[in-house]
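Quick one - inputs below.
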Amino acid sequence: MSGAKLERRAAMATLVADRGDLLVVPGLGSTTWDLAAAGDDPRNFYLWGAMGGAAMIGLGLALAQASRRVAVITGDGEMLMGLGSLATIGIQRPPNLAVIVFDNGVYGETGMQPSHTQSGVDLMAVAAGCGIGQRFDVRDEKALADLAARIKTFAETLFARVLIAPEELPRVLPLRDGAELKNRFRAALGLKA
Amino acid sequence: MSAVDWPDRLFATLKRAGVRQVGYVPDAGHSRLIERCRADADIRDVVLTTEEEGVALCAGAWLGGQRAALLMQSSGVGNCINMLSLARSCRFPLLMFITMRGEWEEFNPWQVPMGSIVDPVLKLCEVDVYRATKPEEVEGAAERAVQTVFGDERIAAVLLSQQLIGKKVWTK
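Output:
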């Protein structure tokens, strides 16, 4: 993990700009704040807990909503807690699911302690080992722009690691009531709340 | 047929309920039900690496407008505890069928510590718990659980007693 590091808030804003009908599940903590900072949308299912569960929520959602694309955008710590879910996703391979990990090598919410990715654990290699064929290692603005375009058009399970700088930013807190988040998300899909 | 074929009754209940995704960790007690789900074109079977993945899977399915169910053995309940917060905080419907170990003619004492606390642990997590010990009790318990889960948007578990499953044969 060296070289250029992207700014996380700008990276999130780039990914969800002109999102079309993209459904987004961020992980608890920083990626939820990043998504809230990029602008609220009922098709964001913010997580305030459920650590390790973001990718699996994305899987259930992608299987249920086969005609829409789903992007899980989470952090390295949250992904590490649910590493097995990459194996589960690797054999289901819904064509409309993207799992994107903002990897800064630290647990930002708890005081910037190092995560496993700082010491050699390679999430790109994990995704490859789990059979996810479309993988993108995003290290600069150009690759980020490519990924932003791709998550609106992809047709095969996608995994991306976005190398971001370890920054401590002011929290941007979205709606916190879980039932309301769920109901407004379903309503935005035309489902009974 | 000498006894009620309870796994087939459970499958029929899932079909009547309109369940479209079934998450599971492979389990001998659920083998017949898993087989039925895998063979059904309208049910997506999702094999999990750990049961807590299934709690999140079911939440995602509901967000997307599908009903889901989660199958596990009693040991898997312990793996789910924190993830159940997702269902509790957001009031996600969550339907679980749990085969019990560690309670009847159990050969493996390591199954006892978790098996013996499944019922109180689930109740602490605000799960409605129904138990079936005889084959003819399974369908009724499952139907009640379905009503609780999808009618009231709650969490329910049907505990399938070890008597239903029989002894595990350890020597061949």
